[in-house]
């Protein structure tokens, strides 16, 4: 991968499959990972928000990395979330991830305690110093309660292993400036910003919707890279209703993905009700299935 796109362009924030009795299902995880890579994902991000990381154990997280690494081989990027509210625990998870074969770390801002910016910076530096793996900073203040402020991000960009950002800040102006000023690879973490962020120099996306529409999401970037911005706009617009239903209609993305793919979630999450699941499937079929044979560029 190039330095501008250290993990590729099209990354999926992969769900974590569980068996009906709630155990980690490594066989299904391997199958899902192989399918996603086969359908256009450059990389997979495991053990994140969509991967239900708050409800999986440290051992399960490492086992998932090992299983996916074995399933997809050495080519695609395999990142794993190691974020916790505890810096020491996060650093230990980072070391375990490195040993399990991860290519990079997704590190979220410490949550609940809402540390001030100097402490946020110190947290990321401590974790980045814990291994030799590159770090993707996960900036999602809507969940953590604390943003990585632009000035902090500029300082973090000076660290040799802090190379990327999963951007859920909803501040396109700041993101565009930081892309231009720092050299950090900015990945959209919100489907509605995939194309706008890419157009101002973003590296790509880390997408929950890619669990069910990997080729269609990648096609937007392919069209843009081919210079056909009209096609990119059209393809992006076709995906927005599905993205809105999956990500902004009151249910977590994990729940809506599993409503389409099947499989249980872990409590405190609850599965989608029948009406919601049926509505999602109907929308998915209408928007995605007719697109299977379409040449996009």
UniProtKB/TrEMBL annotation:
Q: Primary place of residence?
A: cytoplasm
* Location relative to the cell: Cytoplasm
A GO CC term? cytosol
Q: Which ranges form a coiled coil?
A: none
Q: Which reaction does it catalyse?
A: L-aspartate 4-semialdehyde + pyruvate = (2S,4S)-4-hydroxy-2,3,4,5-tetrahydrodipicolinate + H2O + H(+)
What is the role of the protein in this entry?
Catalyzes the condensation of (S)-aspartate-beta-semialdehyde [(S)-ASA] and pyruvate to 4-hydroxy-tetrahydrodipicolinate (HTPA).
**Subunit structure, interactors included:** Homotetramer; dimer of dimers.
| Protein name (record) | 4-hydroxy-tetrahydrodipicolinate synthase
User: Its gene?
Assistant: dapA
